[in-house]
TrEMBL record:
Residues passing through the membrane, by range: 40-58, 64-94, 106-123, 135-153
All copies of domain DUF7134, residue ranges: 32-144
Protein name (database record): DUF7134 domain-containing protein
Keywords for this protein: Membrane, Transmembrane, Transmembrane helix
InterPro entries noted in UniProt: DUF7134 (IPR055558)
Pfam family membership, one: DUF7134
Compositional bias of kind Basic and acidic residues: 182-192
Presence of the UniProt keyword Nucleotide-binding in the record: no
Length: 215
């Protein structure tokens, strides 16, 4: 999260054209293009970063919070292009797929996709002078694609956890079976020794606990 906050803060404070190494494809480098008042932009960045700290425990709530915060900022002032908006939304969308474990995960992903698209549309309409183009389609595809990507990684982890649990249960079952086999063998040996002593007319020696001795 520190990286996201650092990038967003750099976008706020660097002068226009301050992107080192020149512009990247698809408009990913928009340093210096924060159009909100700086205190508002700093507050937005800080609140989004703090909210993302809870993405593992409350992924859906974090996405809703960041979406609502983005809409409030865009409708109250203006929206700014660049990574300051994009990165928090990307991480929030990914977190829904990655960490949400509800009973209907794909329905949740569909609802999250609607929220992401609606929020992005409102945000983009509030960016002064911005018109729909291929760049926006690329951003939308990345944001929406983060949802199934996170879900795929969660499925992989769940399968790994299930395999580990099955391996652990199998190991415990083997250990229990071995322990029982040892106990049964000891009991068999004790019974055999007792039978032999009785056959020779020797008294059955038993300790205080009542079990045959000599084991």
């Amino acid at each position: 999260m520190a990286v996201i906050v650092a990038v967003a803060e750099a976008e706020i404070w660097l002068p226009p054209g301050g992107c080192l190494g020149g512009p990247f494809p698809f408009g990913l480098c928009n340093f210096g293009q924060s159009l909100d008042p700086r205190p508002v932009a700093v507050l937005w960045t800080t609140l989004a970063g703090i909210a993302l700290l809870g993405r593992r425990a409350w992924p859906v709530q974090v996405l809703l919070f960041i979406s609502a915060l983005s809409i409030i900022v865009a409708m109250t002032w203006v929206a700014s292009p660049g990574l300051g908006y994009f990165l928090p939304m990307l991480v929030a969308a990914y977190s829904v797929g990655r960490y949400h474990r509800g009973r209907q995960p794909w329905l949740t992903l569909l609802g999250a996709a609607v929220i992401v698209v609606a929020t992005s549309a409102i945000h983009d309409l509030r960016v002064p002078g911005q018109s729909p183009n291929g760049t926006l389609a690329t951003f939308y595809a990345i944001l929406i694609g983060a949802l199934p990507m996170g879900r795929a990684l969660q499925t992989r982890d769940l399968r790994a956890e299930l395999a580990a649990a099955e391996t652990r249960e199998a190991r415990l079952a083997r250990d229990e079976a071995a322990r029982r086999a040892v106990e049964e063998e000891r009991s068999r040996i004790a019974r055999e020794r007792a039978r032999r002593r009785r056959a020779r007319g020797e008294p059955d020696r038993r300790p205080v606990g009542g079990r045959p001795g000599g084991v």
